[in-house]
Write a structure and sequence with these properties.
This protein is α+β, with helices and mostly antiparallel strands. It is 16% helix and 32% strand. Strands 1, 2, 3, 4, 5, 6, 7 and 8 form an eight-stranded mixed beta sheet that branches.
Length: 214
């Protein structure tokens, strides 16, 4: 199950809005990683398991787990079984139901919806030179108002020492995009997670995710 920090982090993802101008530009992923004595690859075995029991044994989960397994093997770890592996890799993924966003294009006014988490508050004052939902100006006839849906997706990756139960690594990759297609999102988020793996503990980095081919 996606951890509570996924929901808490949604509001902070406004920094990703600049990548949402169009599908062709793709979107950005924020990758946060923490580690405590994660061993360097020296032949240790690993097994990828579902952190959410509801996903365990699923064909779709198995497909995404193979992506994670391939990345771990590329680093130098050796595939094993959950019963005897040195490292247990707990993997989870999700995408929300989407949120509608409104954007104004054209004219000489700044569009506040470069931030996908901007919300208009009824009765709120709209500064001069800014456009806001519900604000009307007859001189803005050349502007166009577009609505679109954005989705927040996330993968979680935790690595435990099977023998001691000690948590060795925690990682989260989140993205806001105009797509809710997990077959597109998850592989790209896995790529982002393993870019520069394991990274600097406690650091959040922004990784570019390629646009979906249509």
């Amino acid at each position: 199950m996606i951890k509570p920090r996924f929901l808490a982090a949604v509001g902070a993802l406004g920094i990703l809005g600049a990548g949402l101008t169009a599908c062709a530009t793709g979107f950005q992923a924020d990758v946060s990683r923490f580690q405590a004595q994660l061993p360097a690859p020296q032949g240790q075995t690993f097994a990828v398991v579902a952190d959410d029991p509801a996903l365990a044994g699923g064909i779709e989960f198995g497909q995404y787990a193979q992506l994670v397994s391939g990345e771990m093997a590329r680093l130098g770890y050796v595939p094993g079984t959950p019963a005897n592996a040195d490292l247990i890799v707990r993997f989870d993924y999700d995408v929300d139901n989407g949120r509608e966003r409104v954007r104004s294009t054209g004219g000489a006014f700044r569009d506040p919806f470069y931030n996908p988490w901007y919300r208009y508050r009824p009765g709120a004052f709209v500064p001069r030179g800014y456009w806001g939902y519900g604000y009307y100006d007859p001189w803005l006839s050349s502007s166009r108002i577009d609505s679109y849906t954005v989705y927040t997706s996330e993968i979680d990756l935790d690595i435990d020492d099977r023998r001691t139960g000690q948590r060795l690594f925690e990682g989260t990759a989140k993205a806001v995009s105009p797509s809710d297609n997990l077959q597109y999102l998850v592989p790209n988020l896995v790529d982002a997670m393993f870019t520069g793996f394991p990274g600097n503990s406690g650091e959040t980095v922004r990784i570019s995710i390629k646009p979906e081919e249509r």
